[in-house]
Amino acid sequence: MSKRIAGPEIERLIQLLAKVPGLGPRSARRAALHLIKKKEQLLSPLAAAMGEAAEKVRICSTCGNVDTADPCMICTDPRRDAATIIVVEDVSDLWALERAAAMNVRYHVLGGTLSPLDGIGPDQLNIRSLIDRVAGGEVKEVIIAVNATVEGQTTAHYLTDQLSGFDIKVTRLAHGVPVGGELDYLDEGTLAAALRSRTAF
């Protein structure tokens, strides 16, 4: 049994920080200590920002993004191409694509992938609202941008089947050799996907 090294408030801070992805118990202790040492510059403003976020953050009822407005800023931006929707598993994927700034389109967040073993079926994901958006008639292309996992590919096939009755183009992200990648360092699955997805020069 480990000895307590600080008061219950500090222990609670460490326990909560340890639940943040990428932070284990040791990293959480270091982060908590750093925050406490910089109480005025970091801890107090962070606590205020988190309180404000907890009060104001909403899930967009249209696409599933997180924002302080519903519908979110992406869904209400008139400069975005409303005819194209990129479907992603999670908000973090949406943010990653936005950082790439490759396309100025709309998004749809599923909230995960189909995983029957974990009890996650179509009803547990944000699929019905995607179908409703496509049925509205404005959408011309759906780009399925899910992870290249077994669950991701199962979800992609399911979505393709569900969207097959609409007069739209359904595409997916190319899988294969990353920019700057060397063939010798890639796994067999990535190489096989790259060969299957080959394009003309």
From TrEMBL:
Transmembrane segments: none
Keyword Zinc-finger listed: yes
Keywords per UniProt: DNA damage, DNA recombination, DNA repair, Metal-binding, Zinc, Zinc-finger
Keyword Phosphoprotein: no
Alphabetical list of SMART domains matching this protein: TOPRIM
Zn finger limits (C4-type): 60-75
Pfam annotation, one family: RecR_C
Record-annotated Toprim domain positions: 83-178
PROSITE patterns noted in UniProt: RECR, TOPRIM
UniProt record similarity statement: Belongs to the RecR family.
Free-text function comment from the UniProt entry: May play a role in DNA repair. It seems to be involved in an RecBC-independent recombinational process of DNA repair. It may act with RecF and RecO.
Alphabetical list of PANTHER family matching this protein: RECOMBINATION PROTEIN RECR
Protein name (database record): Recombination protein RecR
Gene: recR
